[in-house]
Structure formats: structure tokens, C-alpha cells
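thought: user wants a sequence for this fold. calling inverse folding tool.
action: design(structure=
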């Protein structure tokens, strides 16, 4: 069943279990969704401004082109989810776990993602400008085409991550851990001649 344009503002929906529900253009502003569990649900163009999604669990659910503005995401778990084209502004990410998720075209500008486990994620063409990824685990993540101007990767683990030449020039990579292939690509992006 498809729910379109429903108003869930300030609703208390904590601890609920939703399976295969579909939402389009629904407003969850200020809703208490803490401890919510979703499986196979779809949220398209939904608003989660100031919503509390702490300790929530999401399996194979899609949150496409959704707005997360000052949303509490602490201790939430996302497995095999699509967050394609969603925007995250001033969100609380503490302790979030993202596994096999697609964040392509997502906007995470200025996000504080310090020391988070973000390995194996799809972040293609994501906006990570000025994001703080200090100490984050990004092993095997796909950052192809991501906008990384001013992004901080100090102490981040980028082994096996896919980064294009632009990313290697735009981001602050000092102290990041990389594999040999990325080190060579970084040197080439900086204009070094490798023989």
C-alpha cells in the first residue's frame, strides 16, 4: 500500500516494526522514530527534519531523495539500504553503522563522520565537501566522482577505496592509510612523473 503526502509531523512511532510499506512525499518532521525497524520499505522524497531515528534498524529499505536535516541518527543500523540522492544537514551520526549501503548522489557536506565504519559503501558522486572523515574506515568504498573539496581524511583507512584524480587533489589526505595503487594515483594526480 502506498502512502502519499501523509503528515506524520511530531508523531510518536518509536519501537514500531514496518515491513514493505511505501511512502512518497510524507513529512516526518519532529517525529519520534527511535527504535523503529524497517524491512523492504520505500521512502521517496520524504522529510525527516529534526526526527529522532536513534537506535533504529533498517534492512533492505530505500530512502531516496529524502531530507535529513538536524536528524538524530545515533546508534542506528542500516544494512543493504539505498540512500540515493538524500541530503544530510547537521545530523547526529554518532555510532551509526552503514553496511553495503548506496549513498550515491547523497549530500553529506560538512558532515561529522569521524571514526565511523563506512567500508564498502557506494558514495559515487556524493557531496562530501568539507566533511570530517578523520579516522573513518572507508576500505573498499566507491568514491568515484565524489566532491571532496575541503574533506578531511587524516588517519582514515582508504585501502581499496576507489577515488578518481579529482578527489585525490581536492581532499586533505595527509595521514590517510592507502594501498600502493592509490599512492601511485595520488602521485600522478599531483603531477609527478612515475617511471
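)
observation: tool returned 195 residues.
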Amino acid at each position: 500500500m502506498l502512502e502519499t503526502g501523509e503528515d506524520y509531523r511530531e508523531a510518536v512511532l518509536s519501537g514500531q516494526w514496518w515491513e514493505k510499506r511505501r511512502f512518497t512525499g510524507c513529512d516526518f518532521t519532529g517525529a519520534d522514530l527511535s527504535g523503529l525497524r524497517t524491512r523492504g520499505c520505500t521512502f521517496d522524497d520524504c522529510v525527516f527534519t529534526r526526527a529522532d531515528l536513534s537506535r533504529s534498524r533498517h534492512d533492505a529499505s530505500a530512502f531516496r531523495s529524502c531530507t535529513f536535516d538536524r536528524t538524530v541518527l545515533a546508534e542506528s543500523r542500516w544494512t543493504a539500504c539505498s540512500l540515493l540522492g538524500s541530503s544530510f544537514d547537521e545530523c547526529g551520526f554518532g555510532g551509526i553503522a552503514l553496511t553495503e549501503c548506496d549513498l550515491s548522489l547523497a549530500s553529506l557536506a560538512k558532515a561529522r563522520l569521524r571514526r565511523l565504519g563506512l567500508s564498502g559503501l557506494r558514495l559515487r558522486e556524493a557531496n562530501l565537501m568539507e566533511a570530517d572523515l578523520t579516522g573513518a574506515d572507508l576500505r573498499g568504498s566507491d568514491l568515484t566522482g565524489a566532491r571532496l573539496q575541503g574533506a578531511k581524511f587524516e588517519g582514515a583507512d582508504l585501502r581499496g577505496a576507489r577515488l578518481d584524480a579529482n578527489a585525490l587533489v581536492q581532499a586533505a589526505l595527509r595521514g590517510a592509510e592507502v594501498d600502493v595503487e592509490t599512492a601511485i594515483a595520488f602521485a600522478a594526480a599531483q603531477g609527478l612523473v612515475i617511471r
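thought: summarizing for user.
answer: Here is the designed sequence. The radius of gyration is 18 Å.
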